[in-house]
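Backbone-to-sequence.
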C-alpha cells in the first residue's frame, strides 16, 4: 500500500507530488532529499526509513522516483511498480527527463489517478489505460548532434538504405491530433551490458554479459509479431545448433506474453506486442566472452628524476575494423596528494583532467575505431611521492558504448507481422553494448 508518490529532479526540485492517503506530513519531500544528500557515495540505499515512514526510490532519466509507505509492504513490489511506472510515463511522454516531466505534468497526474487508487495499485498496462487517458502528450525535441550522425541509428545493419535517428523511438505512443506522427512502426533493441575484470598480466579474470531484447510498438493493431534469432543460438554449454559460429548464453527468460512453440526448433519468438515498450527476452552469459575483450591496456607507471609521477598508457581497441566505440571514458585513480596534471595525448579530440574530489584522472575519447591504438602520457605533481603512494595508482575503469555490436553475437534474422499491416509500416532494429563495469588492474 502506497501513501505518496513524488518525482524530484537531481537538484531536489519538486516536479510531481501525489498524496493518496494523507498519512504523512507535507515535509516528506524535504526529508527524503535531506537524507539522500547527507549520504556519501553515488548510490544511496534504495530503501530508507524516517520514523514510521519508509521511502523506496529508483533513479531513471536523472530523476528520483519515490514512493512512501507506512506499513511493512514488500520493497520489491514497490520497486517493480516504480520501474513499471517509469516505463508507462516514458510510453506516454516519449522520454524520461526533467523537461518532459515538466511539460507533461497534467498527463502524469492523470496517469497516477488511474494507476493508484487510495494507495492500492490498479494497473500499469498501456493497453488498458489508453481507453481512459484523455490528456495529450507534449513532445520535447531537444537538439542533439548525435541525431545528425549514424551513431545509435536504427536499421544501420539490417536496412542499409534506410536508417532512423536514435530519437525516433522517443515519441509518445499516442500521437497528438494536430501531429502527423502516427506512423506504424516497431523498434527492436538488442541491448547488452558487460562486466569485465582483466588482471595486471592481461589475463581475463571475469566476464559476464547481461542482455535483453526490447520492443517498442507504435502500431494500433498487430495480432502477432515473429522475431527470428540466429539459428545457432543455444542455451547452456551442451546444446550446440546450426552450422555457423555458436551463439551461446547460459540462462534465458521470456516475457509471459511470448509464445515459444517455434523456439526450440526454429529459434522464433512469437509475441502480440501491445503499444508501448516491453522486454520480450532476457539472457545472461557468465565467465566467458565469445570474442576478445573490447579493450586492452598497456600501462607504465614510474617516477621521473624531478619526483613527478609518470603514467604512460597505451589503450588498444580490439573490436572489428568496421566497428567503433563511442563515449569512451577512462578513469585512473591516483595518489590522494596529487596537485596538478600535465598531459600529452595522441589525438586532438581527446581530453583529460585531474579531479581532486574523486582522486582520479579522467581521460575522455569521443570515438575509438576498432583496431586502433591510442596513447596518453600523464605527469602528476605529487608532494612526497613514495613507493607506497605509487601503489595507489589503479585499477583503471572504463565506460563506453558499442553501437551496432553485440558481444554474444546475437542477431535478429527477421521481423514479420501477421496479419500484414495495411498501409506503410516500418520495422527497425538496433544493436548496442554498454559497459556495466570494465576494470583493468595495473
Amino acid at each position: 500500500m502506497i501513501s505518496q508518490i513524488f518525482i524530484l529532479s537531481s537538484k531536489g526540485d519538486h516536479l510531481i507530488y501525489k498524496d493518496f492517503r494523507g498519512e504523512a506530513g507535507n515535509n516528506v519531500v524535504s526529508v527524503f532529499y535531506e537524507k539522500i544528500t547527507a549520504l556519501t557515495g553515488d548510490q544511496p540505499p534504495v530503501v530508507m526509513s524516517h520514523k514510521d515512514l519508509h521511502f523506496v526510490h529508483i533513479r531513471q532519466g536523472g530523476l528520483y522516483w519515490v514512493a512512501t509507505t507506512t506499513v511493512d509492504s514488500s520493497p520489491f513490489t514497490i520497486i517493480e511498480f516504480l520501474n513499471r511506472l517509469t516505463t508507462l510515463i516514458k510510453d506516454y511522454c516519449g522520454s524520461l527527463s526533467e523537461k518532459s516531466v515538466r511539460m507533461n505534468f497534467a498527463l502524469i497526474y492523470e496517469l497516477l489517478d488511474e494507476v493508484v487508487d487510495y494507495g492500492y495499485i490498479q494497473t500499469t498496462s498501456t493497453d488498458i489505460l489508453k481507453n481512459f487517458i484523455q490528456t495529450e502528450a507534449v513532445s520535447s525535441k531537444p537538439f542533439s548532434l548525435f541525431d545528425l550522425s549514424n551513431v545509435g541509428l536504427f536499421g544501420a545493419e539490417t536496412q542499409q538504405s534506410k536508417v532512423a535517428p536514435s530519437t525516433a523511438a522517443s515519441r509518445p505512443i499516442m500521437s497528438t491530433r494536430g501531429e502527423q506522427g502516427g506512423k506504424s512502426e516497431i523498434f527492436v533493441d538488442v541491448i547488452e551490458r558487460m562486466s569485465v575484470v582483466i588482471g595486471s598480466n592481461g589475463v581475463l579474470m571475469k566476464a559476464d554479459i547481461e542482455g535483453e531484447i526490447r520492443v517498442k510498438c507504435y502500431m494500433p493493431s498487430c495480432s502477432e509479431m515473429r522475431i527470428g534469432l540466429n539459428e545457432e543460438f543455444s542455451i547452456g554449454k551442451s546444446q550446440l545448433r546450426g552450422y555457423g559460429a555458436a551463439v551461446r548464453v547460459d540462462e534465458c527468460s521470456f516475457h509471459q506474453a511470448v509464445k515459444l512453440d517455434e523456439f526450440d526448433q526454429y529459434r522464433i519468438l512469437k509475441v502480440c506486442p501491445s503499444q508501448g515498450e516491453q522486454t520480450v527476452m532476457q539472457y545472461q552469459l557468465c565467465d566467458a566472452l565469445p570474442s576478445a575483450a573490447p579493450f586492452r591496456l598497456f600501462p607504465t607507471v614510474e617516477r621521473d628524476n624531478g619526483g613527478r609521477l609518470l603514467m604512460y598508457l597505451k589503450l588498444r581497441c580490439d573490436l572489428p575494423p568496421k566497428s567503433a566505440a563511442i563515449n569512451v571514458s577512462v578513469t585512473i585513480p591516483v595518489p590522494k596528494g596529487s596537485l596538478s596534471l600535465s598531459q600529452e595525448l595522441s589525438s586532438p579530440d581527446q581530453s583529460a583532467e585531474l579531479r581532486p574530489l574523486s582522486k582520479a584522472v579522467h581521460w575522455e575519447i569521443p570515438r575509438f575505431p576498432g583496431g586502433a591504438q591510442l596513447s596518453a602520457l600523464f605527469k602528476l605533481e605529487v608532494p612526497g611521492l613514495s613507493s607506497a603512494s605509487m601503489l595507489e595508482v589503479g585499477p583503471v575503469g572504463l565506460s563506453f558504448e558499442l553501437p551496432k555490436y553485440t558481444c554474444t553475437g546475437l542477431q535478429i534474422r527477421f521481423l514479420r507481422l501477421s496479419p500484414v499491416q495495411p498501409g506503410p509500416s516500418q520495422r527497425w532494429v538496433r544493436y548496442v553494448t554498454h559497459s556495466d563495469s570494465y576494470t583493468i588492474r595495473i
